[in-house]
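> call design_seq(struct)
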């Protein structure tokens, strides 16, 4: 029997309205009472996902900013964090301030550094004094997003950043109305974050069932005991998964868990 349930957050666990169904919350509570750990992994900042736990705790760990930040929800303790490094952040801002809408993620929220077009729909703060913001948050920047209107611009930027030889992870996402380049410290990954939790909980990869949707989920799908793709996942994710469940609007995570527990 699986001892840890790991799930991606957006477009996997929550529906199109940004809601975790009540029946899924109830199921998670029942499973946690059986000592099964619930872990959510996301590209969001900590506070954005932690708010879903404010009424009562529905998970044991949150892995945020694509693995840059790990938080133990019941104990309210940070167990790992790895910032981007202020030198790298400043270099990216210098090179792309006029070319892209730049969002910087600390553990609280997204911060928009330029322009007024909000691609992100929630938890966004417009920064007017960039120098002061960077000084205040120099050790608390875990992820950057460079947003573009066209794929051509995004791909061009991706090539340019690679030539800078910065120690970063780069992930290009198609967000329907825009294109997003996610940037994190090269030393972090979702896989590495989960491994830290496994060590802490004295579990193995075979103890995990994982639900994924994004191409950054593929290493996890291949590593865990049972890797499941939701029906709305990208084709590469479905190919890497051992099975496919319903989409996120049809409570795919809940549906599959009820089949095996």
């Amino acid at each position: 029997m699986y001892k840890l349930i790991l799930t991606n957050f957006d477009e996997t666990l929550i529906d199109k309205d940004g809601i975790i169904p009540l029946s899924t919350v109830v199921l998670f509570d029942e499973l946690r009472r059986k000592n099964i750990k619930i872990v959510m992994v996301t590209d969001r900042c900590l506070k954005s996902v932690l708010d879903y736990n404010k009424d009562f705790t529905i998970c044991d760990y949150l892995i945020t900013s694509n693995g840059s930040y790990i938080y133990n929800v019941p104990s309210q303790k940070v167990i790992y964090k790895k910032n981007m490094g202020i030198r790298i952040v400043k270099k990216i801002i210098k090179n792309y301030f006029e070319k892209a809408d730049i969002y910087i993620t600390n553990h609280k929220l997204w911060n928009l550094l330029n322009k007024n077009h909000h691609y992100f729909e929630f938890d966004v703060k417009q920064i007017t004094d960039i120098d002061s913001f960077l000084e205040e948050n120099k050790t608390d920047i875990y992820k950057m997003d460079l947003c573009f209107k066209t794929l051509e611009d995004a791909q061009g930027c991706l090539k340019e950043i690679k030539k800078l030889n910065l120690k970063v992870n780069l992930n290009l996402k198609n967000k329907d109305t825009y294109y997003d380049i996610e940037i994190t410290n090269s030393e972090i990954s979702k896989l590495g974050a989960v491994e830290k939790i496994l060590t802490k909980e004295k579990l193995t990869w075979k103890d995990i069932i994982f639900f994924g949707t994004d191409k950054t989920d593929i290493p996890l799908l291949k590593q865990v005991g049972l890797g499941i793709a939701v029906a709305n996942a990208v084709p590469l994710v479905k190919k890497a998964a051992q099975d496919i469940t319903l989409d996120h609007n049809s409570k795919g995570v809940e549906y599959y868990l009820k089949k095996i527990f």
